[in-house]
Every structure is written in C-alpha cells, then in structure tokens.
Amino acid sequence: MHPRGATLARGIALAVTAALPLVVWPGIDTPFSTPKLRLLVSGLLAAGAVWLWSGDERASPRSRELIWILLAQRGARAMGDLMMHANRWTLDEAARFAVEHTPRGWLRIDGATVWGEQQLYLQQPAYGTSYLVGKVQIDELMGEVAAARGATFSLPAFMDDFQAAGMVPVALIRREMLPAN
What we know:
Helix content: over 70%
Largest sheet: none
Number of strands: 0
Strand content: under 5%
Order of helices and strands: HHHHHHHH
Shape: elongated
Number of domains: 1
Distance between the termini: 27 Å
Number of helices: 8
Radius of gyration: 17 Å
C-alpha cells in the first residue's frame, strides 16, 4: 500500500471521531471552531467514506456507523438547503427535517448545530448540496479511473493523484487523471 494512503486509511476514523466535537458544530466556543477546520473535518469525512466504500476490512463497525450517520446528516441538511431556496420550506421546517432524518438523535432541535447550519445554508445557496454533488462527481471519477487502470488501480494512489491536482473543479481533475477522455 502507498505510504500516504496507508496513513490516510489508519487515521481517518480516529481523526474524524476526535475532531468532530471540536470543529463541526457551530456555537461551540473553541479556538478550533473555524470554517477552515470545519472544511478539513468535512474532507476527512468524505475521505473516510471513500475508505469504507473501498471494502477495507480494517474499518470497525463503529467507524462505519459514524460515517453513515454523518453522511445521512449531510443529506438531510442539504435537502433543507434546496427546499429553503425554492421557497418551499421555512427555516424551522428545514431544521426539523434535518433533525428527523439524522439517525440516533445526533442532531437535536434544541441544539445550536441545526440552527447554525441551516442559517449558513440560507446565507450561501447550494452550500449544502455542493458537498453531495462533489461526492457524486468524485465517486464517478474514481470508477472511471478504476476502469481505466484495471488491476493496477489502488485507492491510495487515486487519492494521491486527486490531491496533487489541487483545489480545482473535478471536471479539470478528470482531464488530468484521464487524459484520453
């Protein structure tokens, strides 16, 4: 396994689990509660999902559960983003939907998190849905690269190549990783 990929695979569950309470929830008053660190944790969450979907048997059931719950929460929040900007839901309806569709009661209606997130989405249209669209685009790219590379495909090498391309749209990364297309 590629060294950086191995480090990523081993560190994802620990990093997400340790950092999440500090940086994801608005209203927590810590020096770590910054947009840049929230973005980092979101990236770790996405990478964790990729790792889990890769079939790595080292992922514990608890790690898998954590990733799935947080992905469900992200989907529920994104629905509120879309519906509020379509003038179909109020802020209250979006918050309640997110709470009702987040497993295990991890998002509470009386907490600051759901309100802070939904207000953020009102201020930045498509912010919540961009996470989901980006995930789908990366999943599609990974499938195309895996098909093109065949038996030589490795998830760590894919992640290294993807990250080396920089912070540009996935369509441009696709051109770099699949030049024949």
